[in-house]
Amino acid sequence: MAEARSHDEGKLADVVQEMLETVTFAATLAECEVETHVEGSARGYRFRRDDLPVRIAAAALEKIRSRAELHPLRRWADANVFTSGGCSASTSRTG
Fold it and tell me: Higher pLDDT residue, 88 or 2?
C-alpha cells in the first residue's frame, strides 16, 4: 500500500503516475506481476481568510494581542474528511 498527497491536483497526478511506473518497473526486474489500484480519498482544501474557523482563531489571537498568519497545513487533519464529505469543518459537530 502507498499513499500520495498534494494541494495541487496536477502534481498529485504526476506523483501517482511516477509511483505506478516505478512499481511496474520493479516488478519487471523481479520477474513478477504487480496489480495496482488507485483510489482517491479526501482531497486537499484551503480555508479562506473569511471562513468561520479562521475568523474565530484570528479573533482569539487578537484577544491575546497576537496576529494570525495563514500557512498551508502540510499534513492530514479531520477537516479533510469533513470537507471531502461535503461538510464544512467549521460547521461539523460531534456527539
Answer: 2
- Grid coordinates of 77: 487533519
Q: How far is CA 49 from CA 7, 14, 85, in A?
A: 17, 29, 21
CA angle, 52 then 55 then 60, to 5°? 125
User: What's 44's DSSP letter?
Assistant: P
pTM of the model: 0.56
**Ordered alpha helix ranges (H), the chain:** 9-29, 52-63, 78-84
Contacts of residue 48, defined as CB under 8 A and 6 or more positions apart, other chains included, come to 54
Residues 5-56: tens digit of each pLDDT: 887 889 999 999 999 999 999 999 999 999 999 988 766 667 788 888 888 8
- For residues 8 and 15, give the distance between their C-alpha atoms in angstroms, rounded to a whole number: 11
Distance (Å, whole) CA 59 – CA 51:
12
